[in-house]
Design a protein that fits this description.
Chain lengths: ~250, ~250
Amino acid sequence: MPSIALVIEFDGTDFVGWQIQDNGRSVQEAVQTALSELYKEDIKVTGSSRTDAGVHARGMVCSAKVPFNIPADKLPLACNALLPPDVAVVRAIDVSEGFNARFDSLGKRYVYRIVHDRVRHPLLRRYAHFVTGRLDVEAMNEAAACFAGEHDFTAFCAAGGSQNTTVRRLRSVEVRADEQTGVIEIEVTGEAFLYNMVRIIAGTLLYVGQGKIAAGDIPAVIESRDREKAGKTLPPEGLTLEEVFYAPDLHINP
Amino acid sequence: MPSIALVIEFDGTDFVGWQIQDNGRSVQEAVQTALSELYKEDIKVTGSSRTDAGVHARGMVCSAKVPFNIPADKLPLACNALLPPDVAVVRAIDVSEGFNARFDSLGKRYVYRIVHDRVRHPLLRRYAHFVTGRLDVEAMNEAAACFAGEHDFTAFCAAGGSQNTTVRRLRSVEVRADEQTGVIEIEVTGEAFLYNMVRIIAGTLLYVGQGKIAAGDIPAVIESRDREKAGKTLPPEGLTLEEVFYAPDLHINP
């Protein structure tokens, strides 16, 4: 049976998240329904990660076994004709039979977007979290650098996760501000993540920007392994899964 | 009675347009309702222009007479607490009593956004019109320059307008492409506009990009004064009223 990988973009606003759930529309179900219609039999997909309700993706990856071959350059258009407006396949890649989007993933890149201004902006509200008041972006960037490397991220993990270890390795955390639009991007790249980890790191960096936590105290917050010492979990609309990384010979990353 | 000007941003997706209508939510009504609640009496606002259903604005301007003075730096926050999420006051300006947002306007700047790619993009779909296939942006820019200056724009006017003359002066029409996002911006700046004029100019430039009209034929299309010779009216979601211009001493434009 041929195996495929699909790169998926979705607007998470009106989804309960990636994974199929009883309580509403999931992206996984939308993709499975479209593929099942296309291939005329039940197709199951494996996502690279779950995303929470309201979180967006520009580069979610999922894998599936399919009964016959549709050329990879034709597959996105064929799927998109069957998908709702808030989800689309942006690339399809033929992969070898054993490929699994979750277990073969080497890492992910997320961006948390904050719109920082005196007034809220309706045209940005679906994709960025609105913050007003003073914000020291330089301090946020200084604090961000402390997250890189291997740490026990217990302080940045929501209750309810079921992992064996809370040690994770982040490649980089960077903060960029666009003066013209007021949009601040917190980019987090790492191998694997704990539950709500990016949204808690973003909330902690926001506290640093607001002067509630000193940039120099971040190493101590990490070492404390105390969720109470870190910042709030920021709301989902600011978060976008930008990219999932795989071995270069798979040609999934452009 | 004090007079105020408000700069309004709104996501037009779920509005029937600026102007109050019987058939749904209008931005004007939302703004009037918020101001009436704030000032505890009926407030009417005058918009700089009508916008159609689905069209967005980052810089719509409206004027109103109000019963008492609220400091201009406090007014946006007070209004925004009473406005729905898809509309906000981004600036308030104290103006002299005779000010009228419509009649005192000196011009407007619109941007029509196209997302050009092989596949559609859910995260851009609310604010850009999706176009696939070959597109010659250089030819579009060459054609765009032909629209500047004073012309009879009958070929670029939807039926149903009630103007005395179809002659209008455009300051500039420019086409910019962002290679990274695939977003093409058509920026149109002018003194006044006919009904659907920007969306028809954008549709004509799209035809030029697609090779359906030669860039060199644009002057003849304008001179024809024949709506059939111009391109299609592009859909509203791509259009944003970016800015309305007033005399500098009014301090409405930042």
